[in-house]
């Protein structure tokens, strides 16, 4: 997994906080980087030492699902749509492990990090920690799915395990990047302390598919841009994105195959509504997040909104191959709506930054939140594009539920 996914809701500004908790990782100084959007990233609970992490809906999330239902979905005795030959071929591809020797660091990293200072340095740290958390989130989910599906469907289970291998590699590489800044994410701590968002399997499919594909388009777009404009290549991690994003692309293709094997998640009006909902959720989350961090994108020579629109349009075109409906993101009205959401969101953030009583601030936020919700709803209700390529007529009679 590479991209962030969150449900839509008004946001407060993200500000990573470093708490001086010792960590055991060698090579990095004693900081625990906590993901938070509040001034108190961790707090001690009443019971004692147990720390809790506060987070908002726009921080990268950890997911869990109904593993029993997953087992049923991938039981070849129950679901005759599972194309075992296709999954076997995908497994061989994952076993080939194209990027086994790709993620090797060199001395350029530390040297580049030392040259980064001021606000750009801080924004790079934030980029690394958010990306690391998102990758690690994929690792945890895929690892558990690999474990839980072992008996029911060993082939699908092994693919999940190999995808978790990829995500662990990605997260580890980003975490080593943090060590260039004398920091490290305490992933063991995150695993235990973060809240997990529960999604039914159907929603896990939509969300992770989109997350992988949007991740692919983000990485490849940054890579191509920096290849053409090497003067902005201020930290060598971006040079690794070309092969790296192929991992994300493969992960997305695997979810595409999984969804084809579950046509009931793609072939009715509910699937169309949910598909549009998840597309909107992912696109809006990215747009609002990135527009709060324009310094990062400008720092590498990108125009944030142009970059995001390119990623959204490409992801949407890819997604249209499998989802039964997608949003009409190429309609200029869609971007206008996104831009209005950014404006409203900035006002909401500005209220949070003023001095004042919480209650009064909340009152001031109400009309803005209502305006944001109405923009989101209007974007959702724009005429969609019918899409998808699964031949449902062939599938339906074979369902054995
Ligand atoms: Fe990844
Ligand atoms: Fe991935």
From TrEMBL:
One annotated GO molecular function is: magnesium-protoporphyrin IX monomethyl ester (oxidative) cyclase activity
Pfam families in alphabetical order: Rubrerythrin
Keyword Mitochondrion: yes or no?
no
**CDD domains hit by this protein:** ACSF
Q: Which InterPro entries match?
A: AcsF (IPR008434), Ferritin-like_SF (IPR009078), Rr_diiron-bd_dom (IPR003251)
The biological pathway it contributes to is:
Porphyrin-containing compound metabolism; chlorophyll biosynthesis
Spell out the Low complexity composition-biased ranges: 34-43
Which EC numbers does the record give? 1.14.13.81
Q: Which cofactor does it need?
A: Fe cation
Q: Which UniProt keywords apply?
A: Chlorophyll biosynthesis, Iron, Metal-binding, NADP, Oxidoreductase, Photosynthesis
Q: Does the keyword Acyltransferase apply?
A: no
Q: Where is the Rubrerythrin diiron-binding domain?
A: 126-259
Q: Which reaction does it catalyse?
A: Mg-protoporphyrin IX 13-monomethyl ester + 3 NADPH + 3 O2 + 2 H(+) = 3,8-divinyl protochlorophyllide a + 3 NADP(+) + 5 H2O
Task: Please provide, in alphabetical order, the Gene Ontology terms of the cellular component aspect for this entry.
Answer: chloroplast thylakoid membrane
Q: Which GO terms describe its biological process?
A: chlorophyll biosynthetic process; photosynthesis
Write out the ranges of the annotated region (Disordered). Answer: 18-51
* Family that this chain belongs to: Belongs to the AcsF family.
In its UniProt entry, what is this protein called?
magnesium-protoporphyrin IX monomethyl ester (oxidative) cyclase
Q: From what organism does this protein derive? A: Chenopodium quinoa (Quinoa)
Its lineage reads: Eukaryota, Viridiplantae, Streptophyta, Embryophyta, Tracheophyta
């Amino acid at each position: 997994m590479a991209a962030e996914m969150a449900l839509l809701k008004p946001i407060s500004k993200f500000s990573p906080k470093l708490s001086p908790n010792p960590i055991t990782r060698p090579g990095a100084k004693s900081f625990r980087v906590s993901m938070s959007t509040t001034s108190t990233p961790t707090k001690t609970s009443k019971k004692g030492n147990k720390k809790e992490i506060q987070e908002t809906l726009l921080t990268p999330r950890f997911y869990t699902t109904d593993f029993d239902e997953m087992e049923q979905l991938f039981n070849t005795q129950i679901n005759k749509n599972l194309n075992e030959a296709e999954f076997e071929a995908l497994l061989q591809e994952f076993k080939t492990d194209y990027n086994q020797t790709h993620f090797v660091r060199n001395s350029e990293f530390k040297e580049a990090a030392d040259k980064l200072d001021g606000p750009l340095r801080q924004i790079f740290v934030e980029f690394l920690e958010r990306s690391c958390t998102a990758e690690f989130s994929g690792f945890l989910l895929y690892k558990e799915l690999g474990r839980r599906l072992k008996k029911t469907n060993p082939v699908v289970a092994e693919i999940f395990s190999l995808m978790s291998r990829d995500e662990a590699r990605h997260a580890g590489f980003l975490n080593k990047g943090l060590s260039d800044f004398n920091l490290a994410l305490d992933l063991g701590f995150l695993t235990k302390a973060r809240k997990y968002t529960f999604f039914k399997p159907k929603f896990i499919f939509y969300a992770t598919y989109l997350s992988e594909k949007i991740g692919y388009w983000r990485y490849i777009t940054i890579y191509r841009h920096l290849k053409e404009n090497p003067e902005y290549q201020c930290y060598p991690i971006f040079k690794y994105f070309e092969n790296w994003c192929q991992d994300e692309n493969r992960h997305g293709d695997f979810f595409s195959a999984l969804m084809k094997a579950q046509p009931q998640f793609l072939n009715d009006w509910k699937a169309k509504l949910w598909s549009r909902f998840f597309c909107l959720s992912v696109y809006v989350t990215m747009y609002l997040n990135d527009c709060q961090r324009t310094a990062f994108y400008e720092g590498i020579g990108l125009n944030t909104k142009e970059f995001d629109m390119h990623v959204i349009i490409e992801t949407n075109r890819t997604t249209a191959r499998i989802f039964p409906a997608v949003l009409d993101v190429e309609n200029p009205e869609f971007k206008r709506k996104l831009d209005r959401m950014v404006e409203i969101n900035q006002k909401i953030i500005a209220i949070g930054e003023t001095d004042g009583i919480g209650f009064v601030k909340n009152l001031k936020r109400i009309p803005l939140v209502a305006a944001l919700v109405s923009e989101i709803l209007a974007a959702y209700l724009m005429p969609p594009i019918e899409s998808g390529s699964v031949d449902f007529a062939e599938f339906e009679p074979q369902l054995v539920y």
